[in-house]
DNA sequence: CTGTTAGCGCATTCAT
DNA sequence: ATGAATGCGCTAACAG
């Protein structure tokens, strides 16, 4: 129907009022007479006028858009994160630009530059940024959550790490309690600025500490993320064929789990009879797997929701310093963990069995 | 560092050249002397100047941004779609706005209006749109792929439907060949404008046709998407308890599969001994499941890639009418399908065994 | 080759 | 309460 974009001038002309008046009506300014207001609104309707957000953005230097930067979109766990961002942004009238770095510093830089040039209102991070990009953002006064770890770490990321570490420790202890003494941790090879690097440190640190204390063995296997299945097969095949192979297998990431499970099966390792299995990150599939998978679950959706709300508060000037929510990370025990082969376990104290939907 | 945004004027002033010259250098116009070009570039560097994309957008009425509209982000299959869009958009210098309708008409409308106002360059659809929104887009000359089905359907969606139907038929025939005569199709209850509605029609149509021809029984179970696990348990529990329960279970969607599998297991149904299982949509988890799942796979990533490329070609004026690619949909046979209980099967002709990563 | 002018569509001063 | 002017930062069309 409409040939050319209808502008605010046309509305003004058609309604026989001044240009600014239309603007006032649109923005719900208080001081407009009911008479003119209705006249304008009618004209707006009739002409099918829609204000141009880019003109508005240029004028107000606010774009009502935020960006979510994540390493990759394949990871369902990061999807949860993205969902959380999208949800709260949408609720508050913002759109979200998706930024996938593909774990490439070059792409990340291009992306961040583009976002800055776009005049984005803020960015929420699903993973760490290389220093240069973080600086660029800071130099252009683009708010970022979680905030840069100036002098250590922010209250939020500290809480997050603590939660991760705590759940991880519970997981390891439970495994030790079940008699396991030989562990293998399967981890994806990643560039130095890996997925939510803070988590990584928290997790691996907790595992190492607990295991050292119990004088248990830990082998770390790095698999090639670009060929997870094959790589898992090779690495685990070699390891499990060895004389004293692990009886407890920990998958560092939700995306790794299928590869690890598949490899284990091909090695003829039965879960949980021959070995126990646990992974970070939960999903319906982990629940439906047979046996159902024990996981360390972290509610990234909730986290993203909270972070985004915080970002938008900041953007909108309203600096309510919300207390960080209880960042939840929990051990969900299901069937993939059992006593180490040839072990008799007394009781399963301290286990927090959960089965609810993820 | 930078107090205020540095503009093109400052660069011009600092470099001692005209305003337009800087613009020319920035846009790589041919007719600039090397001398001035270098002078300008140096100044740009020194001042850390970054052109404002919103000003540029306003002027050129092109935003270099496209939107991807999907019903939901939870579905990993739609994620694949989103990945495809993001990938090719990024390659060509566009950013992508994510639009999640949450399967709500109201949200969809808000979203589309916002996108139109934003002056988006185009939108790629991961699901159908309500008529009103499609019109709004059309009225504002926003290109959309897949195109509206004017007078039936576009060449593309026709090809897509054909591919879906063909793979679905192969799947059903294979099941019949294995001796199954009683089927159950588990499907999510959705608003009328469901996920990629075209697929749905293609799939269910193909299933019904094949089954009718073979005089086999089909029961359709609708589960509540908001509580998949519980709903599956109830529905399937009731059905499988009946006297002549199905021996072949088809899950309509990838997100449904975990719920269905879990319910089946709780019913004491062993796969594939007691019943065969197949789902639409593949993933690492489907491969790693025990038994590994037979699936009808459709490469949504490839599809999104192609669609987006086509959209951008259109946006950029270059109207190369690419021939639709061979839209792949294939039956991937794995271990979750076997002969119907009490049946002896001759050979497994016509089966296309595949095991590659998804 | 380069400087100047005129808007893109809007919100925001100012006057009235 | 409202109309008129100013400019957000940029590109395009025009002069020189």
Word description of this protein:
The structure is a homodimer of 358-residue chains. Chain A is 45% helix and 14% strand. Residues 347-358 of chain A have low confidence and may be disordered. The first copy, chain A, is an alpha/beta fold and 358 residues long. In chain A, the strands form two sheets. Chain A has a six-stranded mixed beta sheet with strand order 6-5-7-8-9-10, sandwiched between helices. Chain A has a four-stranded parallel beta sheet with strand order 2-1-3-4, with helices on both faces. Chain A starts with 7 loop residues before the first helix and ends in a 26-residue tail after the last strand. In chain A, strand 3 (122-125), helix 7 (131-139) and strand 4 form a beta-alpha-beta unit. The interface between A and B is large, with 59 and 58 residues. Strand 2 of chain A pairs antiparallel with strand 2 of chain B.
């Amino acid at each position: 129907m409409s040939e050319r974009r209808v502008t605010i001038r046309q509305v003004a002309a058609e309604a026989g009022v001044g240009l600014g008046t239309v603007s006032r009506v649109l923005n719900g300014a208080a001081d407009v007479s009911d008479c003119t207001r209705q006249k304008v609104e009618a004209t707006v309707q009739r002409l099918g006028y829609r204000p141009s957000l880019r003109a508005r953005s240029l004028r107000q230097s606010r774009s009502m858009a935020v960006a979510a930067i994540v390493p990759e979109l394949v990871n369902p766990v990061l999807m949860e994160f993205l969902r959380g961002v999208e949800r709260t942004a949408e609720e508050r009238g913002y759109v979200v630009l998706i930024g996938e770095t593909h774990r490439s510093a070059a792409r990340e830089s291009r992306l961040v530059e583009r976002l800055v040039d776009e005049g984005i209102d803020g960015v929420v991070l699903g993973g760490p940024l290389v220093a240069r990009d973080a600086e660029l953002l800071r130099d252009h006064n683009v708010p970022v959550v979680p905030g840069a770890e100036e002098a250590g770490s922010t209250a939020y990321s500290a809480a997050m790490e603590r939660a991760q570490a705590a759940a991880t420790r519970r997981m390891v202890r439970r495994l030790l309690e079940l008699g396991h003494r030989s562990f293998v941790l399967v981890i994806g090879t990643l560039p130095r600025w890996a997925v939510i690097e803070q988590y990584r440190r928290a997790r691996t640190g907790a595992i190492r500490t607990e295991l050292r204390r119990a004088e248990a063995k830990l082998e770390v296997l790095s698999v090639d993320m670009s060929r997870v299945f094959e790589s898992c097969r090779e690495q685990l095949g070699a390891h499990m064929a060895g004389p004293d192979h692990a009886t407890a297998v920990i998958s560092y990431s939700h995306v790794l789990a299928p590869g690890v499970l598949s490899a284990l099966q091909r090695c003829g390792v039965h879960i949980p009879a021959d070995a126990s299995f646990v992974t970070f990150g939960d999903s319906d599939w982990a629940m439906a797997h047979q046996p159902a998978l024990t996981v360390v679950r972290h509610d990234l959706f909730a986290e993203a929701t909270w972070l985004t709300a915080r970002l938008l508060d900041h953007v909108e000037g309203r600096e309510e310093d919300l207390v960080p929510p209880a960042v939840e990370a929990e051990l969900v025990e299901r069937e993939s963990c059992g006593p180490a082969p040839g072990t008799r376990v007394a009781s399963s104290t301290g286990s927090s069995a959960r089965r609810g939907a993820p």
